């Protein structure tokens, strides 16, 4: 796989609204403007939360299919569009699975603890994970702490997870006071083991230290996810003008560090190769 870094943008998330930032995209058209700016700034993948007419996070299959079809028609040559299945306390594993089966995304994010909340869900979750690998849908397993990572390693070792067609998102500081991430949170995860096993990984981080966390991850070989889902603050300590400003910050820093930033073509080559591992 290409050794460059991939920048992923998470422009809206499931919870934030216009009251927190006027440029947070809640409609298809607003998302289109945002993704154009972010692609210009260096993003190769977009993690998109679908919102309904009231601005609420939705896993409705029809609405998600509408968003995914429209956004891919506009951006397929510029971005990999990653669908989210985040439960936000509202949806059950069978609804998350039905969403993916009903929309056929190119890429999807799955919180391992949501699809496999306990051992009784393991059989159905495993069947679904292998189905995605067979259908060549690129999976990002979201891991919130060291226990999630241990579960991932165990499921991989037990052949409950396929060892192809996926990467990881390590979430820094999700359950810390104030959800304020720190670069030290990377120490909670066994990065060396991931590197030794050749497993592709990225991080996201909450709050005003997002940039410092992303910098640390890139220096260790990780990809990064940036955007208003996790943080609204730029390096000057002010609200960023838009998502693209946060992307531009990390893109410029990457270049200053001498790191190659993956294009969407590079990313798709890596995705293709990941199914051959």
From TrEMBL:
Swiss-Prot/TrEMBL keywords: Metal-binding, Transferase, Zinc
Keyword Nucleotidyltransferase: no
InterPro entries assigned: Aldolase_TIM, BKACE
Cofactors required: Zn(2+)
Keyword Cell membrane: no
Protein name: 3-keto-5-aminohexanoate cleavage protein
């Amino acid at each position: 796989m290409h050794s460059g870094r991939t920048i992923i943008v998470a422009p809206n998330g499931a919870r934030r609204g216009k009251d927190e930032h006027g440029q947070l995209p809640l409609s298809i058209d607003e998302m289109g403007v945002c993704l154009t700016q972010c692609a210009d700034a260096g993003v190769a993948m977009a993690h998109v939360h679908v919102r309904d007419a009231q601005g609420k996070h939705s896993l409705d299959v029809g609405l998600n299919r509408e968003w995914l079809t429209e956004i891919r028609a506009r951006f397929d040559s510029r971005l990999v569009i990653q669908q989210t299945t985040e439960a936000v306390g509202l949806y059950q594993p069978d609804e998350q699975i039905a969403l993916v089966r009903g929309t056929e995304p190119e890429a999807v994010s799955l919180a391992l603890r949501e699809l496999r909340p306990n051992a009784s869900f393991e059989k159905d979750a495993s069947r679904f994970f292998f189905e995605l690998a067979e259908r060549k849908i690129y999976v990002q397993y979201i891991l919130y702490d060291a226990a999630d990572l241990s579960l991932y390693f165990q499921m991989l070792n037990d052949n409950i997870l396929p060892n192809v067609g996926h990467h990881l998102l390590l979430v820094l500081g999700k359950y810390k006071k104030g959800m304020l991430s720190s670069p030290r949170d990377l120490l909670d995860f066994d990065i060396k083991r991931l590197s030794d096993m050749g497993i592709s990984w990225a991080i996201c981080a909450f709050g005003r230290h997002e940039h410092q966390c992303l910098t640390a991850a890139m220096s260790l070989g990780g990809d990064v996810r940036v955007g208003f889902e996790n943080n609204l603050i730029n390096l000057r300590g002010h609200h960023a003008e838009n998502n693209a400003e946060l992307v531009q910050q990390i893109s410029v820093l990457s270049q200053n560090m001498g790191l190659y930033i993956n294009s969407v073509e590079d990313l798709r080559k890596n995705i293709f190769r990941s199914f051959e591992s």
